[in-house]
Amino acid sequence: LNHPKLSLCPSLIMTIAFAVRWRDPELVGPARKTPRETKRLSDIEDQAGLRWHVPFVLFYRGRGGDAGADAGDPAAAVRRALGEALVPYYPLAGRLREVEGRKLVVDCTGEGVFVEADADVRLAEVEAAGLTPPFPCMDQLLFDVEGSGGVLNCPLLLVQVTRLRCGGFVFALRLNHTMCDAVGIVQFMSAVGELARGLPAPTVAPAWSRETLDARSPPRPSFPHHEYDPVPPTPFPPPGDMVMRTFTFSPADVAAIKKGLPVQRGGKKATTFEALAALIWRARTAALEIPAGEDARLVVAAGVRGVRDLGLPAGYYGNACACTCRRCPPPGPCGASR
């Protein structure tokens, strides 16, 4: 695996510069022997919208003093805990294959990728520059190891631990989305954390059970699924005219937004999710100047773990979401969904 040994992050919002030194990437597999087998993903995990890698980054403070103090080596602790966690979660150390009908399966080969690095910066300096997305040095804290970025026949999991000068560290992870949704990856990361802290086993035992979410044969949809309708081309502005910003809504902001909403039938009040989703949806529709007569869509991924009839077991870490779609013509408030 070829990679540069040293890279400079020139700025975080033009206020800080630091160097990152990587050690050679290594394959970290399960700490003990696991089954060498092929496991099918669920039918909902075959969809094209999940075939990409999701990055995460978490920042941790040190226990005080410099990195060489008695705080221990976070990279070594995470590497050990990762190997232990991959024993019950061994499919995450596999490779994704495609079989007949574009069906996805996991070849459980027992290989994950781990990167260890050091950054010449303190967490306080990074915090002062801002930790909200878009984070301009993400490629330094989660190195794109050559041969790891594909969806098929590539590592499903990439982990990098970067030690900071203050004794803190950065834990960054990239995961193939076909394997887990947000709840599933948090469950796995929690297992790594528990094992790193010395627990003998994760408090939640993982469950595969992907067949639970397979389609009926033959499929019997009971209503139109507009979330999968073709989307007409959107007249996006040129890339140079687009910027990314992070907005934080405080409790006071949310209260002000809700205050301006009409009272719903029966006196029901909008939830925080409904209020913010409607606000962002309307703002986006107005900004894109979607022509009258065309639908403005809002698609939301809704978790189904709480649906009793599905019978998903505790510890299920696969994708357990269904997309819901709301459509209305701009402008003006939305009426009934069509």
From TrEMBL:
Keywords: Transferase. Pfam families: Transferase. GO terms for molecular function: acyltransferase activity, transferring groups other than amino-acyl groups. Coiled coil: none annotated. Residues 213-236 are annotated as: Disordered. InterPro entries: CAT-like_dom_sf, Plant_acyltransferase. Belongs to the plant acyltransferase family. This is Benzyl alcohol O-benzoyltransferase-like.
